[in-house]
Design goal:
The protein is about 30% helix and about 15% strand. It is α/β, with parallel strands linked by helices and about 375 residues long. Strands 2-1-3-4-5-6 form a six-stranded mixed sheet. Strands 9-12-13-14 form a four-stranded parallel sheet, covered by helices on one side.
Length: about 375
């Protein structure tokens, strides 16, 4: 029988034969471990369909992991796509994809949540399902399979891959994540279609199985399925605290630094920009909450670089105040601030001078914006 012990044995025998073995061991500082012996949790694997060091840089996954694990009935773990040498090793040894935290096979969980950030990851999604031993199409799954959920910006145009998902969640996760997980938890053991029917009543949830194509339109097959699905919009960014316990990756991740999201949405409406449209409207986090969160993040992680995340960070209406307050706090501790994305014409020499007081970090310009 494939269980956590079986997978641990496989890892101890094979880890040193693959590149970057630390990608697969879990146990990182700040990762969440819950006692599975004494509680019947809703078991979730959140996944970014790419390798560990890419997935661990994804801020959306960090938000979901933090929100879900703060719910007392949920245990959320992570799973990423193994590198090709590990895929080969797993297939040779008949090992299914497993979670990093408890080494549980993904097919044994209640939910698999996959972040869709770009269309090029679609083939990885299929590989992830195949390695997890979950049928690729929602219609081929039975009551015992995990409910496979997609979220993220690509879900706004998800039809090319919609049949791979039982549930597609549109919009900001903070709004209806808890409601959705509670329905899944409370309907454990029920017929899959009945559960999906209940989920379809939640705002922002699209159940592809309940729809069909008519010409260029997607229309409901059943009366109970809503004909229009509106995305969830978190009206006030300050109403949900940002994650301040970032998991410290074992392998250097693509963006290896602390991150606090300072605003969501963008003041500009560049016609070519997907993010500029799907994250509308602009919502800012207050300067005080940003400063407090940065302090907590530093004390929980020890990072010496903090990134102020936004689609265009220097467009935040309080950016000078935020940078001033942070530099006051961080300068003597040699902790620097970086601005991950900004428009050229929003560039502000005063801010550039202030953030370079510790060391030269970075301002990333988006010249096309
Ligand atoms: S400024 Fe950048 S993020 Fe904003 S809409 Fe334009 S390209 Fe998109």
């Amino acid at each position: 029988m494939v269980d956590s012990n079986y997978i641990l044995r496989f890892l101890s025998e094979n880890l040193m034969k693959v590149s970057k073995p630390a990608r697969y061991i879990g146990g990182e500082y700040n990762s969440v471990v819950k006692d599975l012996a004494n509680k019947d949790y809703l078991r979730i694997a959140f996944s970014f369909p790419d390798v560990y060091e890419v997935g661990m840089s994804h801020y959306g996954l960090e938000i979901l992991y933090w929100l879900a694990n703060n719910l007392d009935f949920v245990y959320a773990e992570r799973v990423f796509l193994p590198w090709v040498d590990m895929v080969e090793m797993m297939e040779k040894n008949d090992i299914p994809l497993f979670t990093l935290e408890s080494k549980t096979p993904v097919y044994k969980l209640d939910v698999l949540g996959i972040s869709l950030e770009y269309e090029l990851s679609y083939t990885n999604v299929l590989k992830l399902l195949e390695l997890s031993r979950i049928p690729l199409r929602a219609r081929e799954r039975n009551d015992n399979h995990p409910i496979v959920i997609a979220g993220g910006p690509v879900t706004y145009n998800c039809e090319p891959i919609a049949e791979a998902f039982d549930v597609i969640y549109l919009g900001d996760g903070e709004v209806n994540l808890e409601k959705m997980l509670r329905v899944i938890y409370e309907t454990k053991g029920m017929n899959r279609e009945e559960r999906l029917k209940l989920l379809s009543k939640i705002e922002g949830i699209y159940i592809p199985l309940f729809y069909e194509q008519e010409g260029r339109k997607i229309i409901p097959k059943y009366d109970f399925a809503p004909s229009k699905i509106r995305r969830n919009i978190l009206k006030d960014l300050n109403s949900v605290k940002p994650p301040v316990k970032k998991i410290l990756p074992h392998v250097e991740s693509v963006h290896d630094r602390g991150v606090i999201e300072i605003s969501r949405g963008c003041t500009r409406g560049c016609r070519f920009c997907h993010a500029g449209y799907v994250y509308r409207p602009v919502r800012e986090r207050d300067a005080d909450q940003i400063v407090e969160s940065v302090k907590e993040l530093i004390s929980n992680t020890g990072y010496d670089e903090i990134s102020l995340l936004s689609l265009s960070s220097l467009d935040h209406s309080q950016i000078e105040k935020i940078v001033d307050k942070l530099m006051e706090e961080l300068k003597d501790k040699k902790i620097s601030i970086s601005i991950p994305s900004t428009r050229m014409d929003a560039f502000n020499i005063k801010i550039a001078e202030r953030i370079s007081q510790v060391r030269k970090t970075g301002l990333t310009f988006a010249p096309e914006a």
